[in-house]
Design goal:
This protein is mainly alpha-helical and 108 residues long. It contains five helices and two strands, in the order H-H-H-E-E-H-H. A hairpin with a 6-residue loop joins strand 1 and strand 2. It is elongated.
């Protein structure tokens, strides 16, 4: 995941927020604009690494789950934790995204 800069942080006169700065945040938010992906991210955050078959309440086929996991992985929001089908959330990416949306969160 490319470093995300917050458009909501204190304005920096030396480095104004640009369209180039906006793109990584837009890309991450597009990935998370799907309810299934939010549920997956929630389950992995709170229940730790899980096999795709252990994800609950998605109502999807195995290829459907794999599609969403691939999108989350390519966005840098989850990583492969080991051989086979274990996944874990990249907390660094989630924190970066949280701070981009709410810069005060980092200071709390």
């Amino acid at each position: 995941m490319t470093a995300i800069r917050s458009p909501f942080d204190v304005p920096d006169e030396q480095q104004p927020f640009t369209l180039t700065d906006a793109q990584p945040l837009v890309d991450a938010l597009k990935i998370l604009a799907d309810p299934v992906r939010l549920v997956i991210l929630h389950q992995l955050t709170w229940h730790g690494p899980l096999k795709p078959s252990e994800l609950q309440g998605l109502g999807l086929t195995q290829p459907g789950v794999a599609h969403h996991l691939r999108a989350l992985r390519e966005a840098g929001l989850i990583t492969d934790a080991g051989p086979g089908s274990f996944r874990e959330v990249s907390l660094k990416a989630v924190r970066e995204l949280s701070v981009a949306i709410d810069p005060e969160a980092e200071r709390r």
